[in-house]
Amino acid sequence: xxxxxxxxxxxxxxxxxxxxxxxxxxxxxxxxxxxxxxxxxxxxxxxxxxxxxxxxxxxxxxxxxxxxxxxxxxxxxxxxxxxxxxxxxxxxxxxxxxxxxxxxxxxxxxxxxxxxxxxxxxxxxxxxxxxxxxxxxxxxxxxxxxxxxxxxxxxxxxxxxxxxxxxxxxxxxxxxxxxxxxxxxxxxxxxxxxxxxxxxxxxxxxxxxxxxxxxxxxxxxxxxxxxxxxxxxxxxxxxxxxxxxxxxxxxxxxxxxxxx
Amino acid sequence: xxxxxxxxxxxxxxxxxxxxxxxxxxxxxxxxxxxxxxxxxxxxxxxxxxxxxxxxxxxxxxxxxxxxxxxxxxxxxxxx
Lengths: 260, 80
Description:
Distance between the termini of chain A: 26 Å
Strand order of the largest sheet of chain A: 2-1-5-4-3-8-9
Order of helices and strands of chain B: HHH
Number of helices of chain B: 3
Radius of gyration of chain B: 17 Å
Oligomer: heterodimer
CATH superfamily of the domain at 102-259 in chain A: Glutaredoxin
CATH architecture of the domain at 102-259 in chain A: 3-Layer(aba) Sandwich
Distance between the termini of chain B: 62 Å
Order of helices and strands of chain A: HHHEEEHEHEHEEEEH
CATH topology of the domain at 102-259 in chain A: Glutaredoxin
Number of helices of chain A: 7
Strand content of chain A: 15-25%
Largest sheet of chain A: 7 strands, mixed
Number of strands of chain A: 9
Shape of chain B: elongated
Helix content of chain A: 40-55%
Shape of chain A: elongated
């Protein structure tokens, strides 16, 4: 590609240089200046023909270069598409997020994974008594969803929060908690078994720490935000180091390539 | 026991930041920061106090590792 560009540049250069050489024998004058002088003088037919010829050559070069660039671009897009298909195939083989879940949302309604098929989902596991990480991550997730909401060309992304602490996080506790974040955020809880099942599907690690005299404890758990495509396939994950802008851009790209 | 709401969380975090700043300014001398410490204890659940205290130690250690590098403990000298 660089070669073509160089060629085009050279052609352009010649177009400036040649009339000057013919007229003034290459005396040290600025090419732009001589060009102006050239056109104001009586036109020599052979020079005019040479100029036209040069223009034609330039045009041909541009057309040729352009079509070559077009071909390169097409090949590149084809390759990208192939890579994307390959990635999807690989992801389908990964035993992550392939299962299902059945949990109660923060209004007490039973929700399963199937209910969210057809929409993009951002999923985070945490607990309401979490000191700093969960609120930080949920705020980040909410900000990402709010930013994507502003783009009318994009489909809505559904944020989900699944508790890893079903002992304390019942339906009212979640209803109270999700209010602080994105208005569409859905909190999900269930029995210890149901919650564990949902987490296991995403390889979520969660262990409650020792209880203090108030019965309070902290749950050590996986801090990842998962991106799930409308057909329920796990597509990507974001750790704590990924900032809001990075996640937003990444999701935008996933949505864009998904449509192809 | 209900989890702290967003206002309570913010009050706790603010108290924590003030205490941490005081400790930074006073060479970790807790005696110089008693008022901040009691505000911190008052605004945060006991579990969070414990958690944040440990977290500060960890962050300090991490910072030290990043600036000074890792110094391996003096192991047994190589047998002659």
